[in-house]
Amino acid sequence: MPKMSQAAGLHRASLKKLHDLDAALELMYYGWRGMTLEADDYLTKQGLSRPHHRILYVVARQPDIAIGSLIETLGISKQALNRPLNLLLERKLLTSKRSSEQHRSKLLRLTATGQRIEQTASDHERKVMRDAFDRVGTRGAVAWMAVMEAIADNN
Amino acid sequence: MPKMSQAAGLHRASLKKLHDLDAALELMYYGWRGMTLEADDYLTKQGLSRPHHRILYVVARQPDIAIGSLIETLGISKQALNRPLNLLLERKLLTSKRSSEQHRSKLLRLTATGQRIEQTASDHERKVMRDAFDRVGTRGAVAWMAVMEAIADNN
DNA sequence: GTCTCAAGTCAACATGGTTGACATGAGGTG
DNA sequence: CACCTCATGTCAACCATGTTGACTTGAGAC
Predict the structure, then answer these.
(1) Which residues contact A59 (CB under 8 A, 6 or more apart)?
(2) Whole-angstrom distance, CA of residue A67 vs CA of residue A49
(3) CA A45 to mean position of chain CA atoms
(4) Is A69 on the interface with B (CB under 8 A)?
(5) What is the DSSP letter of A77?
(6) Residues B62-69: what's their mean pLDDT?
(7) B23-53 pLDDT, tens digit each
(8) What was the pLDDT predicted at B13?
(9) Inter-CA distances, B18 with A59, A60, A62, B71, B97, Å
(10) For the CA atoms of A81, A83, A85, A91, what is the dihedral angle to 10 degrees?
(11) How far apart are CA B74 and CA B51, in angstroms?
């Protein structure tokens, strides 16, 4: 785990805007950072990091997910999944067991501790979102989601 | 440069939502991906990547920036800056010269080629934003910026 | 000449990815 | 039983991006 001087010199730089949409680009960058900053701090204290959280997040929302599905959902290789997943199993934040029908697959689930950590980390992120939404009202929140959906589905 | 199978299995996974704001968390994640996807593809073809683009982006908007300021703006160590910066100098996308008053500092500027590449990469990102904003109108765009500002300034 | 300070460089390390190759373990089929 | 398939697990090599720490270089200032 890197030391993560964390937000040390990370006040949004005020750069000259060459184009209309430069502000939007920068907001996306700092928005992502802003949302994940506290969660990452918390995870670091737990000896975990973003990939671990991603695993916990997915498993929390799809209990008994097989490893292959998890790999596909996360969009990384099984080798890349291997280390963080094993750490989570060793730490008993996750359990794996063979399926009764599909004995080939291993099914993953959160333990109580894993649930707690996933929830705390995600809570940090949700809090940031909630505070932001509170400032702009429901209509603003709806508009934000519409924009983000358009961007996300940009393929 | 990693091969970047790029969006291979990266259609937004549809996970069960445990909380109200889970959708927002996922939108932030996929939004960031969506905005940077095409730019990253382009950069990869140029043998560059995100850190190089970040450098070009900042220097484009702050010509004659000193290396120390650049380090501060980017929020990384000088050692981390070193490699991508040297690549950009070797490729002549950037020039550096000593300041006339502040002979200690080196000032960075984009070359014509550097400008072209910075612009093309940023154009990809701006296009994604423009398309999204077009779909939701000015009011939606303004609301999006307000939310993102609230998130970004969340310190 | 010496001090300061920006910049440059080198080594060691951590992390999060990638491919490729191969091993293991469980079911299904001949 | 022997064999094939398929999910999983593991090993090695590699790359990119970052970190600290330690040291050098080069220019100005005193």
Answers:
(1) A65, A70, A94, A108, A109, A110, A114, A118
(2) 19
(3) 16
(4) no
(5) -
(6) 94
(7) 999 999 999 999 999 999 999 999 999 999 9
(8) 74
(9) 11, 8, 10, 40, 55
(10) -170
(11) 9
Asked if B66 has any chain A CB less than 8 Å from its own CB, the reply is no
- As given in the structure block, the two tokens for residue B16 are 């069960």
Residue whose token pair is 């070193």: B82
- d(CA B57, C1' D25) / Å: 29
Residue located via tokens 């109580």: A112
The residue to which tokens 């291997």 are assigned: A82
Angle between helices A67-74 and A78-90 (to 10 degrees): 120
Phi and psi at B100, nearest 5°, equal: -75, -40
B150: its two tokens: 């609230």
Positive or negative CA dihedral for A3, A8, A14, A15?
negative
For chain B, the structural domain boundaries read 22-152
The H or E element that residue A65 is part of is strand A65-66
Give the C-alpha distances (Å, rounded to integers) separating A58 from A121, B18, B140, B154. 13, 11, 30, 25
In chain B, which residues have their Cβ closer than 8 Å to the Cβ of A57?
15
User: Which CATH code is given to the segment(s) B22-152?
Assistant: 1.10.10.10
Q: Which of B70, B129, B133 to mutate to test the interface with A (most CBs of A within 10 A)?
A: B129
In a mutational test of the A interface, the residue from B30, B81, B154 whose CB has the highest number of chain A CBs within 10 Å is B154
Q: What's the token pair of residue A30?
A: 């700092």
The pLDDT-based confidence of B98 (bands split at 50, 70, 90) is confident
**A135 reaches B (C-beta below 8 A):** yes
Would you give the DSSP letter of residue A14? -
